[in-house]
Amino acid sequence: MSFALGPKARAARVGLKVFDETGSTNTDAMAYARSGGQAPCWFVTTMQTAGRGRRNRVWVAPRGNLASSVFESFNVAPAVAATLGFAAGVALEKALREVSVEAAMRSPNSAANDYRLKWPNDILAGGSKLVGMNLEAETLPDGRLAVVVGMGTNVVAAPEGLPGAVTCLSQLGVTASAEDVFTALSDSWHEMRGIWDNGRGFPKIRDLWLERAAGLGQTVSIRSGASVVSGIFDTIDETGCMVLITSDRKRIPIAAGDVYFGDAASAKAAD
């Protein structure tokens, strides 16, 4: 089976670039943007050898997994564009549910019934990492902002060497291929991008994201460098920051960091 856009994305004349193998679909997408390529356009492969996750962590997609990046361009500020990552999470969670219907019905207790969005940009299945996302932005010569959203989905294998538990769709009993996931994703992305609407629709995206959030209302710890902050995960604010309520009842917005479920000891144990 070859990669194909879903009917909604195809009708919208979205671009598609398919690679048998590539270093990084994010790198390919940004190079296309710099060369004057037209947005929106997808870059996809089932074999990625030099991908990057958040904070430039290595994200290698072995053959059969889905490495996908979408290039968009907007006349918005970088801070507004950053909220597009939440639309990506909602879109991919929706696509995963669509391709997992059979597995979920066959095994009601399967993690295929338990996809959750982990702030700021992962998707978990039964508490294990299934998807990693990475958003990059760069101002183009015409003044527009090129935004590339990379999404790596573990379809047939879970990459080794990552911190924490990881899983893949095949381990969940989901028989969908990378091509199946992408077709569903291209349509759900088109839908969520429309709702996001250059940031004007972020309040709706925020609500959808919170409905699917991992750890909401529970104790979490955020580690940024050597600093660890713990509290109850209360919400995400209008800019996408995680809002914690600390033990002394302070509300603290967190702009970036690695999330660990539990108190500060859980974050320190990850060293």
TrEMBL record:
EC number: 6.3.4.15
GO cellular component: cytoplasm
Substrates-to-products reaction catalysed: biotin + L-lysyl-[protein] + ATP = N(6)-biotinyl-L-lysyl-[protein] + AMP + diphosphate + H(+)
Gene Ontology molecular functions: biotin--[biotin carboxyl-carrier protein] ligase activity
Keyword Ligase: yes
Leading EC class: ligase
Positions of the BPL/LPL catalytic domain: 1-197
Top-level taxon of the source organism: Bacteria
Pfam families: BPL_C (PF02237), BPL_LplA_LipB (PF03099)
Protein name: biotin--[biotin carboxyl-carrier protein] ligase
Biological source species: Rhodopseudomonas palustris
